[in-house]
Amino acid sequence: MVIVCPRVVFSALRGNSGKTFLTVGVGACLRNRGKRIVPFKKGPDYIDAAWLGMATGRPCHNLDVFLMEREGVFSSFLARLPQTDGVLVEGNRGLFDGMNREGSYSTAELAKMLQMPVILIVDCSMTTRTAAAMLLGCQHFDPEVAIKGVILNRIGGTRHETIVRSAIEDSCGVPVLGAVPRITGGAFPGRHMGLVPPPEHLGASLAVAEAARIAARYIDIDRLWEVAEGSPPLTLPDLKGEEAAWPACTSRQPRIGFIRDSAFWFYYPDNLEALERLGASLVECSALDDEELPPIDALYIGGGFPETHAESLAANVSFRRSLHEAVERGLPVYAECGGLMYLGEKLIVKERTFPMVGVFPLNFVLDRRPQGHGYTILEVDVPNPYFPTGEILHGHEFHYSHILDGEEGSLTLALNVRRGYGINGRKDGLCYKNVLATYSHLHASGAKRWASALFEQALFYKDREDKLFWEGRPIVVNDVQVVTGNSGRPDACFRQTL
């Protein structure tokens, strides 16, 4: 399959170069000009993706070969192209930075894979001609990476701009598409996990408007769009096998809930779309505002910032109680990172203690430094409701919390940590009844069993009273073994295909 689509990826020489601010500004500026822009974030990030989605008015999807593999990246990219004018991708870290010395999974490798021209953002703080030397080094480091334009950021004045611009254009043969001065005040303030996310930014719309104003004033948007339009035709592999991996939709439609509010909102759009594609009806709810859990057949709790909302989460006693009771009745629940913390007994933030749901008898403590940060590789070694033993999962973790030492000793942990930290450096994936909670975030395009497993558990929960008579022992129905928990009750079960 060959497609023609204007596309461009924004990258930088290193992190903290103003890449997100300028990408958001360009995206919003193109939207203001009537362009239908599809945004992507390279890597596993949720916060930058949220800003890009807000700027362009479309959900921002992630592209990450480690999480999704090449077929997943191609499939997700292709699925967003209908009825669009172009694609805008924000890279992460420096252009060639990856998880090893070969730069595997870097922005440069993604740019080559999707044949995208690169716009390099250069932080010009306290430098002039050296900026040209660094760009020249990037050009020679991997000539297959098509660096087609440069945006100078944090320029000190007209003379500064003139020197850097002429050095780059004369020595590197790459056009400078813009020169942005140092911005004081900061419309995009940061904190411990990056930028303050839009759900917690009181002036989020104004911040995006300010980014658009700066992009329109200091960046040549017309020339930048010409670069995007100059993208070569892209040949995509045959994706029939990828599509066939998704089971056909069922006529039965389970209700799968997911908590989305300013405390919990880390969801890859692909994950929610995968559940809908299987036939699930998604039910959004809030742990901050709703009095109780709505009628659902399964629950997905994503990550987020329970630590910044700990007092409000604790105050909503009725919702916490309804969730705890539902878990005891056997409600299938899959939770990630912040969702895991919410299911604990208590959350300790700055020496203040807040009661949480209490599914797991664990106290989570927010630390000043990251406890787990980066890609994870997990091996399933304990039977659980969602993944077969022996399966290898690729994920990502970024958490500042840890549990008090030794508290996990009496609990079941289903995942061996091959790479990463997880719960204690060795294990992740807390299990209780039909709950699996982990610090790692998974992407449905890579962890293909995840969506179908949650969907099937929801169906099983929905239908179990009509199908099963429980006598406290394993029962086989249509080649499916129903395994009871210690109580032998139907609310302590999961099923495994024989």
Question: Your description of this structure?
Answer:
- With 498 residues, the protein is α/β, with parallel strands linked by helices.
- It has 3 domains: 2-235, P-loop containing nucleotide triphosphate hydrolases (Rossmann fold); 247-466, Class I glutamine amidotransferase (GATase) domain (Rossmann fold); 468-498, no CATH class.
- It is 31% helix and 27% strand.
- The protein is built from 14 helices and 29 strands.
- It has a 9-stranded mixed sheet. A 7-stranded parallel sheet has the order 4-3-5-2-6-7-8, sandwiched between helices.
- Helix 2 links the parallel strand 3 and strand 4.
- Helix 1 crosses helix 7 and helix 10 packs across helix 14.
- The longest helix has 20 residues, at 448-467.
- The chain is globular and about 70 Å long.
- Residues 241-246 and 468-498 have low confidence and may be disordered.
CATH class categorisation of the largest domain: Alpha Beta
CATH architecture of the largest domain: 3-Layer(aba) Sandwich
Classification by helices and strands: alpha/beta
CATH superfamily of the largest domain: P-loop containing nucleotide triphosphate hydrolases
Q: State the CATH topology of the largest domain.
A: Rossmann fold
Note the overall shape: globular
Low-confidence stretches: 241-246, 468-498
